[in-house]
Amino acid sequence: MQRSLPESPSVPAPRCSVLMPVYNAERYVAQAVESILGQTFRDFELVIVDDGSTDRSREMLHYFAAGDPRIRLVSRANTGYLRALNEGLALCQGEYVARMDADDIALPERLQRQIAFLDRHPECLMVGSALLRIDADGDVLCEEPLPVVHDEIESRLWSGQGAIGHPAALVRRQSLVDVGGYREEYYGAEDHDLWLRLAERGRLANLAEPLLMCRIHTGNFTFVNAERGQAAARAAVVDASRRRGWPQPSFGALAAPQSAAERQRAWARSALYAGHYRTARKHALAAWRQRPGQIDSWVLLAHAVLGRWARPLRSMYRRLR
Prior knowledge:
Blueprint: E1 16-22, H1 29-37, E2 44-51, H2 57-67, E3 71-76, H3 81-91, E4 96-99, E5 105-106, H4 110-120, E6 124-134, E7 140-144, H5 150-158, E8 170-172, H6 173-179, H7 190-199, E9 203-215, H8 221-224, H9 226-244, H10 260-273, H11 277-290, H12 295-306, H13 310-320
Parallel strand pairs: 1-2, 1-4, 2-3, 6-9
Antiparallel strand pairs: 4-8, 5-9, 6-7, 6-8
């Protein structure tokens, strides 16, 4: 049974509602909440739906809620991520809704910069940002740029690729209501489906600067249910093509899910190319431990250990040959 919170008619609605579903995130949730409470933009409410957590998340959230009246906390039995999102959306009162995940960290000026952008661009319904990818320990892997203008964003969406970081998005609340919120049949790519429906009503944008530290770890849906997410994104594109009366796009084969060692190698390469050598060494060593018999694991570990010297030494070796 869903619980709604009473609203006081004497208290004006905040300009922005930050919507954060939480489920068993005790390792990260304090950082996520603190990053919102520490925003330079202050006129917001933080709507948290605790989706039946069985760890210490609920206890931690009640502690935060008792200390800050801007937090509106709902705790109830587990119903699933998308129902928690839609339930939280129904509670949001702000002109804008900013998404936030319980394992991410918002940079201090995130809300200020995104709200200022939508205030200046009434034709835009949603704005995201570039991302700083961090690992489970909070170490930076790399910066992920995303397309900033509508046409480039929509082009990537139509190809089934990600173009907007879901937890970095800030959307006009009325636009979310108008399109019907999140649709459960596209679980795994619910954001992809939402962006496509919003793009039929207005413009989408990303800010070029990173405003969110987006955490990558083995519990991410992207890794646990990668094929389901890809399939849901493609189904959302097919549905959008029907709505618009456009020819249905063709797609290649779904990407095979990565093994744990492949994920560690990918994270190590990202950190290495971005110049975060300590982080690269950590993940390269983890990949080597999982697959010590693979030459790729040895090569990557050597590059991570050498750091900035790997490329000059490789070039020198080629010249000597």
